[in-house]
Amino acid sequence: MVERNGLLVMSGTRTALEVTTVAPLDPSVVVVSHLLNLGHTTEDQLLAHYGRMAEWPGSGKTDLVLRLADARFDSIGETRTYLMLFRAHIDMPEPQYKIHDDGVLVAELDFAWPDLGVWLEFDGFVKYQKLLEEGESASEVVVREKRREDLVRRLTGWECIRLTWADLSRPERTAAMIQRVLDGRRAAA
After folding, report:
1. Checking DSSP bridges between strand 104-113 and strand 2-4, what pairing results, if any?
2. Rounded distance, CA 112 to CA 136, Å?
3. What letter does residue 41 receive in the DSSP assignment?
4. Separation in Å, CA 148 to CA 39, 123, 125, 144
5. For residue 109, what is the enclosing H or E element?
6. Cα 15 to the center of its chain, rounded Å
7. Which among 29, 38, 95, 163 could disulfide-bond with 167, CB atoms 3.0 to 4.6 Å apart, if both were Cys?
8. Residues pairing with 112 in the sheet
């Protein structure tokens, strides 16, 4: 137990591990990744406590959840994208890949395959709300994001893949499209 706002609550580590025993794989990876991202637990804490719960009912998938969860995932959409790639046996990308221009950070990409010159952005509704600055319209955010994409393309020469929730609802088709892009870049190299 830990104290939060004057209340005793279950620790992030215990919450993460218990979720893995009662929820399916995808929600478990989403929750564990979110708790890691927020700093409510760490990989070391999870592994230390997991060793003591190996015999818990329902803990059979906990090991897989802990291997797939990642503190770098910023959203449910990113986590679900990663899981789609995993299920499709696509080479796993690097999450939150940083792009610099003369030493200045200009972009953090949701996912990248730097060796192939490809990056992937998950465009959820919340992403554009988070980017909205005071007094700014949604269309201004979209234009700014387009300029960011153009800058990354100019600096790297990489190809961008953009996904939405609709793409995740068709995982086989979406994974095949991603694999074609990666294979095309691999063949061109």
Report:
1. unpaired
2. 29
3. S
4. 28, 14, 18, 6
5. strand 104-113
6. 20
7. 163
8. 94, 119
Classified as helix, coil or strand, 158 is: coil
Token pair in block for residue 122:
């998950």
Q: Tokens 């929750």 label which residue?
A: 31
Contact 27, 40 (CB under 8 A): no
For the domain covering 91-188, report its CATH number: 3.40.960
Tokens for 161? 């893949």
Between vectors from CA 147 to CA 144 and to CA 153, what angle results, nearest 5°?
Answer: 145
Token reading at 85? 């790639």
For the chain, 189 residues long, give each residue's pLDDT as a single digit of tens: 778 788 888 899 999 999 999 999 999 999 999 999 999 999 999 999 988 876 778 788 899 999 999 999 999 999 999 999 999 999 999 999 999 999 999 999 999 999 999 999 998 765 555 555 677 676 777 787 889 899 999 999 999 999 999 999 999 999 999 999 999 999 997
Per-residue buried b or exposed e for 161-173, using 16+ beta carbons within 10 Å of the residue's own CB: bebeeebbeebee
Burial of 109 (0-12, 13-18, 19+ CB in 10 A): buried
CA distances from residue 9 to 4, 12, 13, 154 in whole angstroms, order as listed: 7, 9, 11, 49
